[in-house]
Amino acid sequence: xxxxxxxxxxxxxxxxxxxxxxxxxxxxxxxxxxxxxxxxxxxxxxxxxxxxxxxxxxxxxxxxxxxxxxxxxxxxxxxxxxxxxxxxxxxxxxxxxxxxxxxxxxxxxxxxxxxxxxxxxxxxxxxxxxxxxxxxxxxxxxxxxxxxxxxxxxxxxxxxxxxxxxxxxxxxxxxxxxxxxxxxxxxxxxxxxxxxxxxxxxxxxxxxxxxxxxxxxxxxxxxxxxxxxxxxxxxxxxxxxxxxxxxxxxxxxxxxxxxxxxxxxxxxxxxxxxxxxxxxxxxxxxxxxxxxxxxxxxxxxxxxxxxxxxxxxxxxxxxxxxxxxx
Length: 326
Ligand SMILES: O=C(O)CCC(=O)C(=O)O
Ligand SMILES: [Fe+2]
Prior knowledge:
By secondary structure, this protein is of the alpha+beta class. Helices cover 34% and strands 22% of the residues. It has an 8-stranded mixed β-sheet with strand order 1-2-10-7-12-5-4-3. 2-oxoglutarate-dependent dioxygenase essential for auxin catabolism and maintenance of auxin homeostasis in reproductive organs. Catalyzes the irreversible oxidation of indole-3-acetic acid (IAA) to the biologically inactive 2-oxoindole-3-acetic acid (OxIAA). Keywords: Dioxygenase, Iron, Metal-binding, Oxidoreductase.
């Protein structure tokens, strides 16, 4: 019995979005997928999404083309990707004490529209004629990530009986598209083992959509404390995770899992991630607060919480609770 329970816990939910048209909420398999989404986010705070709308061609162009070109740029060029000291965790990241090692990433912030992607490319390739191929690839892929994020958010709010908030939240949600590279430690033959490249943390935002390319490495901790390696269920998989902003806004209905990235072998790992960052005040709606669900977190702004988290480094502790727990 106990063995059965632990086996069950060690399987992360897998949800098939091939029957969902993100531009037609309610149609097709929407209702049955919604039930799975609500259950997965409440229980695990994450799930594998089979999402063929992000096609093999798009993935190949993104990872084999655009990201390779981007990371080949000199570090001083990549450092131009900054949104200022007031917005830590938004632009170029590398070697953050206690958090990342042998890792670097760049991010396009605020929206994933063509203008933002072009502005980013102009910064990286000022003499390169704007790098139209990069822009088309990155915008096309990021849009698909954003469509899935919006559909998942809508499903969750519908499932919790608070769908009326969806449009207002969407209007003040920004998307940050982050492209990451994790250096390979070296092969076992050279005596190298697994190394943590991004330390244990919970995301600060509402929802995160991660696409790992070829090399796995994302590990998620269950509520019970077990660590699970996220293995994409299919080549069309992406991974969806809830962050502390969604946990707080839902008054704890949604779980925000601790996760980390550890890699081994001699092939670098690349991932592309879309973070949905709320600009609205994080305050659980009245419908989600009652005698059975007393308020768990004080109202706050995510930008303040992000600054708090950035000042703490990677520590395996409940930062949301420390920041605004009731
Ligand atoms: O690269 C990944 O798979 C996830 C990295 C991560 O957890 C993050 O950037 O917050
Ligand atoms: Fe994360």
